[in-house]
Design goal:
Elements: H1 7-11, H2 39-56, H3 70-79, H4 84-101, H5 112-115, E1 120-122, E2 133-137, H6 148-164, E3 173-178, H7 189-202, E4 207-213, H8 220-230, E5 237-240, H9 242-249
Parallel strand pairs: 2-3, 3-4, 4-5
Antiparallel strand pairs: 1-2
Helix pairs in contact: 2-3, 2-4, 3-4, 6-7, 7-8
Protein name: Sec14p-like phosphatidylinositol transfer family protein
InterPro entries: CRAL-TRIO_dom, CRAL-TRIO_dom_sf, CRAL/TRIO_N_dom_sf
Length: about 260
């Protein structure tokens, strides 16, 4: 087994994606429906989705992140390229998940036991592209001893926190997986599948880029399994080293503590 000290060396042999140069590079691909005449057409589609949800799924909650939340409905319409049927289907699944999982009730106190391990957190500062930053420290993840349900709750809480910190005009967050010190016992395919579902079904288009930092040799087999499952999301992944994180994604004063010299 190759030691962790070789991680930077191994990163040079993995496919890299260039850093995103502007926020516009990660915005939704379609800002208006095909053939739309403007805001009026978009508003009609939002209203149509809301009416469908109210008629077909009256038991879904209302209010923020509910079936009558204009912003949420519009976001899912954009994600589904303004297909009303597809937006209704995906919104129904997302709202039911939020309700069943109790996302609105999650708090730092409710995930305290795992949150205090420092295995994952939302960075206090935005990156240089104005995105909230969610950091995962893989070496502190132990699936054999940590409750998988509690891990999922921590994940949902932090993703929700990061999305809620989006400043006006920003649409995506940056995910950083700190793989320094990663060992076989830190691998957790089931959790990664849950995380993929979260971003595909419940927070679509909210993940702007993912950095895998200083991936050691032992991470490569897991990546080969995970990559096909990511489908188009695999293009968001960039393998890099800690220095790249410091120099290309943050100002000197906003570098996350775990990545400072």
């Amino acid at each position: 087994m190759m030691t962790v000290s070789t991680s930077c060396y191994m990163c040079r042999f993995l496919v890299r994606a260039p850093p995103l140069k502007s926020r516009s590079a990660v915005r939704c691909p379609s800002a208006a429906p095909p053939g739309a005449s403007g805001a009026t057409s978009t508003s009609k589609l939002v209203l149509e989705v809301k009416e469908r949800l109210a008629r077909e799924h009256p038991g879904l909650p209302t209010g923020r992140y509910g079936r009558d939340d204009d912003d949420m409905v519009l976001w899912f319409l954009k994600d589904r390229k303004f297909s009303v049927d597809e937006a209704v289907s995906k919104l129904t699944k997302a709202i039911k998940w939020r309700q069943d999982f109790g996302v609105a009730e999650l708090s730092e106190e409710s995930v305290k036991s795992l949150y205090q391990t420092g295995k994952a957190y939302v960075h206090d500062s935005l990156d240089i592209y104005g995105r909230p930053v969610l950091i995962v420290v893989a070496a502190k993840h132990f699936p054999s001893t940590q409750d998988p349900v509690e891990n999922q709750k921590l994940c949902a809480y932090l993703v929700e926190k990061a999305v809620n910190r989006l400043p006006p005009g920003a649409e995506n967050i940056l995910g950083i997986f700190d793989l320094r010190g990663f060992r076989v016992e830190n691998g957790d395919l089931q959790f990664l599948k849950f995380l993929m579902d979260v971003f595909y079904y419940y927070y679509p288009k909210r993940l702007g880029q993912v950095l895998f930092v200083d991936a050691p040799f032992v991470f490569q087999p897991m990546w080969q399994v995970v990559k096909p499952l990511l489908k188009s999301y695999a293009s968001l992944v960039r393998f890099c080293d800690a220095e790249t994180v410091r120099k290309e994604y943050f100002k000197e004063e906003t570098v996350p503590p775990d990545f400072r010299d």
